[in-house]
Write a structure and sequence with these properties.
Layout: H1 2-10, H2 21-30, E1 39-46, E2 58-62, E3 73-76, H3 79-88, E4 92-94, H4 96-103, E5 111-114, H5 119-122, H6 126-129, H7 147-157, E6 158-162, E7 168-175, H8 180-196, E8 207-214, E9 220-222, H9 229-232
Parallel strand pairs: 3-4, 3-5
Antiparallel strand pairs: 1-7, 1-8, 2-6, 8-9
Helix pairs in contact: 3-7
Length: 233
């Protein structure tokens, strides 16, 4: 049944065509036909050499309309920072106790934050969190003394991204149920942030390819020329 649904969605998408943003986003929403509220995701091929330390692209941006889902946030903090995190809405706050839970296989969370002095402790589970994209980093604002605002930002909906070994960025811009206008504004915010993070050592075309897709739907290619601040403003 799922295969038939996918094939039917695929028929609506011209694979060789690069759509403008409005057309492509509408198609991605239209082809989200599963029996649940699918995410709308973005994939970007960057003109960087991800093997070079100075061309690592990594960041996070608070989306204007959030991600349309409950974000479960873990915070490593003690004393007054622990209370600050709890008041801001963190789902789980702790230190050594959380390390032991994670070591035992517990991964029922979406984001990990930490105050700086907790990072030596968090490093004990880096091999578990890292491969899943959950290891907190100062570059994404996940390691900070301002833990309250960081929790609030994550709970609202913050898109995090990191270039992989194939120079690709993958992220979500929200849920289908949010509708075209909100998803478009989220998309623009993410792309603008990505453009700001272009490494100085990156030469030539920065954004090579772009596509949108729903969780269970086909990829919809976008015209990468639009993925500049000038075009999106």
């Amino acid at each position: 049944m799922a295969n038939k649904r996918y094939k039917k969605s695929l028929e609506k998408v011209k694979r060789e065509q690069l759509y403008d943003l409005d057309q492509g986003l509408k198609l991605a929403i239209e082809t989200a036909t599963a029996g649940f509220d699918e995410s709308i995701d973005i994939a970007v091929k960057l003109g960087v050499d991800s093997k070079q330390a100075d061309q690592q692209v990594r960041g996070a941006v608070s989306l204007p309309h959030g991600l349309g889902k409950n974000i479960r946030v873990v915070v490593f903090a003690k004393a007054e920072k622990e209370e600050e995190a709890k008041k801001a809405g963190a789902d789980f706050v702790g230190a050594e106790d959380l390390i032991e839970k994670i070591k035992s296989g517990w991964l029922e969370f979406d984001r990990v934050l930490a105050v700086p002095d907790m990072m030596p402790l968090v490093a004990k589970v880096a091999k578990i969190l890292g491969p899943k994209g959950l290891m907190p980093s100062p570059k994404t604002g996940a390691v900070t003394q301002r833990i309250g605002p960081a929790v609030e930002s994550e709970k609202k909906g913050k898109a995090s991204f990191r270039v992989d070994k194939n120079s690709l960025i993958h992220s979500s811009i929200g849920k289908k149920s949010m509708g075209f206008e909100k998803l478009k504004e989220n998309y623009i915010s993410l792309i603008e942030e990505l453009v700001k993070l272009k490494p100085k050592s990156s030469k030539g075309v920065y954004i090579r390819t772009l596509s949108l897709s729903s969780t269970m739907g086909p990829g919809v290619g976008l015209n990468p020329v639009q993925a500049t601040q000038k075009e999106l403003s």
